[in-house]
Automatic annotation (TrEMBL):
Organism expressing this protein natively: Stomoxys calcitrans
Keywords: Coiled coil, DNA-binding, Metal-binding, Zinc, Zinc-finger
Stated name of the protein: THAP-type domain-containing protein
Name of the gene encoding the protein in the UniProt record: 106091677
Domain THAP-type: 1-69
Molecular functions (GO terms): DNA binding; zinc ion binding
Length: 367
């Protein structure tokens, strides 16, 4: 069975193997009529046993069960396994009569053969049958020879049918096969109303879908709005807290003023060079004032010991020396002779103008 069909078909052009899956192979065997036990991996079937729509380019399409086996030339299906087993073997076949013996046997006549094989009618009988069909009118025979008009099992001649159509009758019989469509204005209006109703229903369904989508969008937007409001409130609180800490600076201040303010209000223990210069200049001018600012006012200033470690006092350049010299010259010019003598005797008389109150440049603060 290597390159031949399972049923030994003649003129087998294409051969196709059975599927490897045992369940599919069993299904093929049941449909084609093959013995599952005799089917091997090499067994094949020819294209006569398959429908062309199941065939692919080279192989049979997978998961498609072939149809029943095709019939032979004599319109006889191939024998199945039970029939093949019931056939006589080679020894019994030899005992069967040959063709010559079969021809020599007497022929058996069928008793029904005479009844079925009646003689054909002659021309005279045909003419007599045609004379009996004289009830059909000439117009009917001319238009439809030997074919009477039929409507639902009843025979109606052509004249009656034309008369019925001329009278605008809806039907020639009891059935609804010849009824004309009702084209009354009421029915047309009903049809229009039905079409409009259908279109309105479609529009309503579309609007409902749009409303559902809009509702979902509204819910999302409300959630976003609540979240944004919460963020705005938190930002407001932060702004209020920062407004207590942050203060505005004027445009006329020097560049060292904001650095000093940051040093006072800061929390870090690391100071820049500018901040250390300011702190050392304040401590050099008045250590009491520096101690008052650090201890009583609790300004964030470096301690005096740290200042001495970082820079010795000899390297400090105070920013008030020039102003002090100018002020001393002005005070000396404004002294009288007596005051100048007192100044010579008392070296601290030059501090008198700074200790006394001058209305021109000093401001009184009433407590």
């Amino acid at each position: 069975m290597g390159r031949s069909c399972y049923f030994n078909c003649i003129d087998a052009k294409r051969l196709y193997g059975f599927p490897k899956d045992p369940e599919e192979r069993m299904a093929w065997c049941n449909i084609v009529g093959a013995d599952f036990a005799r089917v091997r991996p090499n067994t094949k079937l020819c294209e006569k046993h398959f429908d062309p729509k199941y065939l692919g380019v080279k192989n049979l399409k997978r998961y498609l069960v072939p149809p029943a086996p095709q019939q032979n030339e004599n319109n006889q299906t191939l024998p199945k396994n039970d029939e093949i087993q019931s056939l006589p073997k080679n020894e019994e076949i030899q005992s069967l009569p040959k063709n010559e013996e079969i021809q020599s046997l007497p022929k058996i006549k069928d008793p029904q053969h005479k009844e079925n094989n009646q003689p054909h009618p002659k021309n005279e009988e045909i003419q007599s049958l045609q004379s009996n069909t004289s009830f059909i009118e000439d117009e009917d025979t001319n238009n439809f020879p030997n074919m009477p008009l039929k409507t639902c099992g009843s025979i109606i001649p052509l004249k009656k049918r034309k008369i019925a159509e001329s009278k605008n009758l809806t039907s020639c019989c009891n059935c609804d096969c010849h009824k004309k469509p009702d084209t009354s204005p009421q029915k047309l209006e009903k049809g229009k109303l039905q079409t409009e109703a259908g279109s309105l229903e479609k529009l309503i369904s579309e609007h409902k879908k749009q409303m559902e989508i809009a509702g979902k969008d509204y819910e999302k937007l409300t959630l976003q709005n609540t979240q944004l409001n919460a963020e705005i409130e938190s930002h407001k609180e932060n702004i209020e807290e920062l407004s207590k800490i942050i203060f505005g600076l004027s445009t006329d201040i020097e560049s060292k003023a904001p650095k000093f303010a940051r040093m006072i209000c800061g929390k870090t223990n690391r100071y820049s060079t500018d901040q250390l210069d300011i702190a050392q200049s304040i401590h050099h001018v008045s250590p009491k004032c520096y101690r008052f600012m650090k201890e009583d006012l609790s300004f964030h200033l470096p301690s005096p010991s740290t200042l001495l470690k970082l820079r010795p006092p000899s390297s400090i350049e105070t920013g008030i020396e020039n102003n002090a010299e100018v002020h001393q010259k002005e005070v000396a010019a404004s002294f009288n002779k007596e005051e100048q003598q007192c100044e010579m005797i008392f070296g601290e008389m030059d501090c008198q103008p700074s200790l006394e109150c001058d209305i021109s440049h000093d401001i009184k603060i009433e407590l």
